[in-house]
Amino acid sequence: MKNKKRILIITLVALVILVTAFASKTLGIEGFLTKAGQKYAQVKSNDKVVATVNKKPIYLSLVTLYYLGAKEMYTLELSEFKKNYPNNYKQFLAKPDPFKFLNSCIDEILLDDYAKKIGVKPDREYLKNLISQQKKEFFYIINGMPQSEMNRMPKTNQETYKEESKIVRDMVKASGMSPEEYFEKKEIPVLEYSARMEALKKQMEKNVKVPQPTSKEIEDFMKYRKGITKDEAISVLREQKARSIVESKIKNLISQLRKNANIKIIDEDSLKKLVQENP
After folding, report:
1. Is residue 252 part of a domain?
2. How many domains does the structure of the chain reveal?
3. CA–CA separation, 266 and 269 (whole Å)
4. Residue 36: CB partners within 8 Å, gap ≥ 6?
5. Residue 196 falls within a domain, yes or no?
6. Is the CB of residue 263 less than 8 Å from the CB of residue 57?
7. What is the pLDDT of residues 91-117, one digit of tens each?
8. Which domain does 167 fall in, by range?
């Protein structure tokens, strides 16, 4: 399920980097597979800007799309997580929050603009492989996964995947585009952003001083990863430490970018209303 969930999340945030609305035509509420799709169409027909980042708009329809889609996914997976992790399922499954998502949109716009400004470009081979992988998964969702691959999933996961796929198909329908056009115009820019962030992190890693793993860390990791050599364990642990340091630097960078950015929250009441009407 992890890969399938990642595809759904990628689709949910597909408009964040584009910072544009979906197709501008008014949408009806007929023919959607989920309540989320119907509600999104209603919001889209009377869309509004809820925030701007350096004059770039973030639309209510985008936040609605995320919130309702994530809410349906949350509901689908709640019983499964409660069953598998009865005492701590909340650690793995957080309730969707449109305000947190809005802040994520702001951060991603700022990071993307920063990376472009300093000339960070995605690694071509990395991006090519990423697009190939995600395109395959995307059209599995649109056209149906081959039964041979579906059978590899546990039955409960199969049902969840089918329901999540309906949400994604509704989003494509709401865009007014064909699946091929949607992938080209909405998904690929997000994958380019993802690849650009990967390139930015690798660039930052070059200037990071990584501490050597302790003997205890190496020992514990070798117990966890059976068959791995000590040198391999050290290499993996150093890479993990480097990534952890870089993630911390990214957080600091975002804080600095926010200080210098022109961020306006224009319509907080609409987000509150969204939660009230769809608890």
Report:
1. no
2. 1
3. 9
4. 65, 68, 69, 71, 72, 167, 170
5. yes
6. no
7. 777 788 999 999 999 999 999 999 999
8. 2-204+259-277
